[in-house]
Amino acid sequence: MASLLTLLGAVLCSLMVSSEVVPQADFDLQALAGKWYLIGIATNDLWFLSFKNFVLMGTATITPTADGDLELVYSELSPYDTCYTSYIYANKTEVPGIFTYVTEFWGYAELCMAYAKYDEYYLTHTTNNRGNESFAVNRLYGRDVELSAEVHEKFRQFSLETGILSENIVILPKNGTFISCTNKILTRAVQLI
Ligand SMILES: *[C@@H]1O[C@H](CO)[C@@H](O)[C@H](O)[C@H]1NC(C)=O
Ligand SMILES: *[C@@H]1O[C@H](CO)[C@@H](O)[C@H](O)[C@H]1NC(C)=O
Ligand SMILES: *[C@@H]1O[C@H](CO)[C@@H](O)[C@H](O)[C@H]1NC(C)=O
């Protein structure tokens, strides 16, 4: 059964973009709950890359629902000193560790929880379909703003292996996280997560 799920995961995670990413074995959504920092993002998507230099590190809060779905609230400071929060509700799928959601910015997304060390960091691989385009986005989240050089390197390797160009692997500036996002909150029309 486990190997069937793994196989199914391999199929689902690589449906749109050719890669061999499978979800974390024995994925534990409860263990992922709570606050994280978005540390790194890697994608070849041109739309995202056109403003990658403006993206700052933000905070993400994960709340599992009673049904096993996932609520994600992401807050960041924009370059214009305004806080943005975006909210994503991601549906669980038959494969533990794979979720689906739709946002205006990223289109239809299949989120794969590729690797988690729940008290330290986790790595995601998302395949997105926006209009007629398919592209992958990898993200690195940390419980702390500082992660070890080994973890950064693991993210880099993972991204290269999933087809992201070296120059499109970004570790975000830390200055987006330290200002409380309780003032001036706007809800983004497009969601950047
Ligand atoms: C954050 O830091 C980056 C890199 O040092 C800098 O380019 C950017 O202007 C800073 N942004 C804010 C809002 O402080
Ligand atoms: C999530 O589930 C809801 C309720 O079943 C459904 O209407 C929606 O289309 C689903 N979204 C995705 C992206 O699968
Ligand atoms: C994808 O859609 C865009 C905008 O609708 C269009 O300009 C482009 O030619 C399409 N590309 C392909 C490969 O169909």
Low-confidence stretches: 1-12, 14-18, 183-193
User: For the CA atoms, what is the radius of gyration?
Assistant: 16 Å
Number of domains: 1
CATH architecture: Beta Barrel
Sheet with most strands: 8 strands, antiparallel, barrel
Annotation field: number of helices: 3
Task: Please state the overall shape, judged from the principal axes of the Cα atoms.
Answer: globular
CATH topology: Lipocalin
Domain Lipocalin/cytosolic fatty-acid binding: 33-174
Pfam families: Lipocalin
Signal peptide: 1-19
Keywords: Signal
Task: Give an account of the 3D structure.
- The protein is α+β, with helices and mostly antiparallel strands and 193 residues long.
- It has a single domain (2-183), classed as Calycin beta-barrel core domain (Lipocalin), CATH 2.40.128.
- It has helices at residues 2-13, 46-49, 149-161; strands at residues 34-43, 59-64, 70-77, 83-92, 98-103, 107-117, 121-130, 133-142, 169-171, 185-187.
- Strands 1-2-3-4-5-6-7-8 form an eight-stranded antiparallel barrel.
- A hairpin with a 3-residue loop joins β6 (107-117) and β7.
- The longest helix is centred in the C-terminal third of the chain and has 13 residues, at 149-161.
- The protein is globular, with a radius of gyration of 16 Å.
- It starts with a helix and ends in a 6-residue tail after the last strand.
- 36% of the residues are buried.
- The structure holds 2-acetamido-2-deoxy-beta-D-glucopyranose (3 copies).
- One 2-acetamido-2-deoxy-beta-D-glucopyranose is lined by residues 131-132.
